[in-house]
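call fold target=EAL domain-containing protein
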Amino acid sequence: MDGSARLHEEFVVGVRIQPAEAIESRSDEERGFSARLDAIMRHWSRNGRQISKPLKVTFICFFALTVISLTGLRLFSEYQHLTHRLEKTIETAKSFLSHQQKIGTDGLEKGLLGLSVNQQLIDAFKSDDPYALQQVTAHLFPEMTDLHQITEFSVYNSDKHRIISAHKAITRPDDQPNFLLGLAAETESVSRGLELGDNGTTTISAVRPWSVDGKFLGFLKLGMEIRRPLVFIGRTLQADVIEVHKTRSLIPGTAPADARNGWITFGNVAYRTVGDTELPPHIGPLVESDLDQLSRFDRIVFDNGAVKIAYSFPLLFANGASSSHLVLLQDITPQAKAFVLHTGISLLIAGLIAFAAWLVFNCLARNLQASVVKTRRKLEEEVEANTDALKHSQDRLVEAQKIASLGSWERDLQNGSLYWSNEMYRIAGLPLSLSSFEAREEFFKLIPPWQRMAVETELDQAILKCGQFNFEHQLIRKDGETRHLHVRGYVQAGEDGAAAKVFGTTHDVTEHHNSQERSKRLANILEASLNEIYIFDPKTLLYQHANQCARDNIGYSMEELADLPAWEVLGNNDEQLLRETLRPLLDGATSLLSLEGTHQRKDGSEYPVEVRIQLHETQNTSLLVAICNDVTERTARERETQAARHAAERIAYFDELTGLPNRAACQNDAAVAFAESNESKPAFIIHMDIDNFKRINDTLGHSAGDACLEETGERLRTCCIDLGKGYRWGGDEFVIIAVDSDADPEELCQRLNIVMRAPMEFEGNQIWPSVSLGVACCPNDGEDFATLLVHADLALYRSKDDGKDRWSYFTSDMKIDSDEEARMEQELRHALRRDEFFLVFQPQVNIRTQQVTGIEALVRWQHPTRGMLGPGSFLPIVEKTSLAAPLGQVVIDKALEAASIWQASQLDFGRIAVNLSPSHLTSGTLLDDFNNAMAKHGVLPEFITAEVLESVFLDSERSNNSEVLEELHNLGVHIELDDFGTGYASLSHVADLPINGLKIDRSFTAQILTDAKKEIVVNHLIHLARSLDIDIVCEGVETDSQFDRLRMMGNFSVQGYLIARPMPFENISNWLTSAQADLSFGLA
């Protein structure tokens, strides 16, 4: 590579020439600790402005270190002195204890020697009289206690068994002899030492073998509590003495074990003070711990202002056990006070000396600081003046570069130095923390690879020729943004004619470049737009530009359009009208004009357009831009959509069969007619229903039903003229809304009642229709459509209940009845869930043999608040709702359950009779309910009677009832026609129906004695049944006279109060058990 290329590599790519910053950084590293210390001092003294601060801190640190050292030395000296005293005290305590123990044992040995030769004691022992021995020891023990502080006196036989103790002793476990006793027996001499006495306290004990005249009698033992010697030690050493025992070594029942007599238990130790002093609170943890393992400071205790230190030493028992020790609390309060006083005085003297030195030092430092500050301020003012001028000039350059997005750079090719302005960093998106060399490397990496070669070539040529360079390139910054840069500069030659320095500028022309690109892109979009776009002069209205779509659609070239004014292209060809239309836009009253019109092509044809015009103003010119959309296809689609909408509305709001408005139309019209803002609301609404419409569909077919509806719609339109408007609500229901507030509902009802009765013809069949009407008047019955419709519906139900083919006006009692029925329905549903229904049973007996032929199951309701309710209180509601099937299933299940229990008890009940609901018959579940119950309870169908009303066979809406009963009959269930004679059944029907029996209604039985005609009817019915081979049950037999009269008519069954009233299950079961004995009527 030649020289120019090498220089270019160093300038653009390489890093061979080391930057000045790197050289300076290496020199700082070489200086090491000294450089870092200098930096700290510069920062601490605010770069030399506050030299007094580090001087003062140094002085204070020196003084503090001196005081701390002297105080520490003082503490160490006091600690050594205290330790020496404590060790001396411990040795003294041990010496005192050993001395006191020797004195005690000597006294005990003397006492044992005196006792061993005491003749009274010898005689009492030899007499083998325990009482005599007790008297002697009791006499001797007080004397020894007073004279020698003896606390224990015991006599043992030769087998080392205790014979007597003059003191109160606690029996040791297993009553085993202690160590000293065994030692005396082994050595045949006096044994002595410390041990736990019989009362659980530390005792100095001595045991002597007892021989008289060469004969071995046993052992004598004396003991003295150590408490008194310990008190003497405590007073001598001026310390609190604490006796401590491990709880595991204590004898149960003793004072230490039970924490009595001043003993305290804590953790695994028991302790007490041997003097009269009170122990410090919370001393227990310290007593329990091993004091030898604690430091001196951990053994210090504060007790009511006194400072005490604890130390311990063990009590060496004769058996070698180490379960007890003594703790001494030594009062060191005077030493502590002396230490604090001496230390305080030393610190005070040191403080006074330091304060005096501080005053002198501070005065000298202040004078020195003032001199330094004065000199430095003068120099800084001169530097600041020069710096401000330079900075002002530099700031202006920086701001100028920032405004122009122009960065400058300079490179010395001879010494390798490089300068970048701040704007260069901003253009490249690099942080200012980078050095110029690092920034240069990053900058070069951001140039796209396909442009780097071109940049290198331009710079190579400029360096080689020492000439100028001028080129553009892209830069992809780290945030992904692409910038377009324009680089200009020149290369300066040195004295030798070779390239020496490079000066350059980098201009960020991204916005200008993007603006040009955007203009081109918008021009292309404008030209390629599918809308017609025209640009024309607002004054002359001459076209200046039209895009390709506009030219193609209008048929003119751009040259032709340039000579045409806008109004000639518009269909109206009126200049004045166009200028008036544009005036609000030109005057600034609006920023957008939207209008519709026609354009005229070059061939003279016209087409509809939608036009949006805007005024675009620049500094020098104003232009009108019109965007036109050819709406030929849209207009056609709108016409098609409008036609489809009309057709859809016709389908959505009119009933195709009757030609009347439908429910949706009715609701829409009602929302307007009954709006709160409408002061003249319709006078009424009528709810109309065709009577027996299902019969028409079932007998003549649905085509006949459609024909009937179509004719009804035509008649309704005729009747409503001038009074109301009819709507088909759904099915065979219609709604009529009055035309105004003065319309007469009575007149309209009369019209409908008369006109709707006229017969209709359908395929040779004549239909005689009728309608039921319900009327609700506004405002008496409500002011909104929803309320009026509900009330009209209730009135319609009243017309249906009253026999149909009539009209009824809404009254308030209808609402009450409706609400009561709704409440009753809710309670019935709850009753089914809570199993509140139960059965009562009434027997049927043969009038001649008095045998039970059947039992009728009658449902009752145990209401939670109203008590027991009969079927008349709730069955009408059940029939109107969907509850008939669930209630019927419950009745069938409970009835067959009772029958199964009677069968299991071998009670003859004939058949169990169940009343069937007409609605249950049509529910589709009746057969399943019977089959499931029979399978569940094991009752055969021949033991079941199903009672049905004669009306179920005559109701056209329940035409399949006969089929259901036929299937039930085929199963073997006995079918009876209930309440025969009260309905519309003829005798001819009886022969055709699938029945096995008739029940003569109680209304005939009640009048059989007073009405001859009724008696004849009953007699004929009985004979008719006999002829048809079907059974008879006569209901309502309440007197003997009725029973006798019926008995003369034949052999059949009777039922009534004379036989038995309806009874609960338990009562009817008892009745069946005693039935033969109790049925004594009618045979006389």
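return ok
The chain has 37 helices and 37 strands. Confidence is low (pLDDT under 50) at residues 1-28, 1080-1084.
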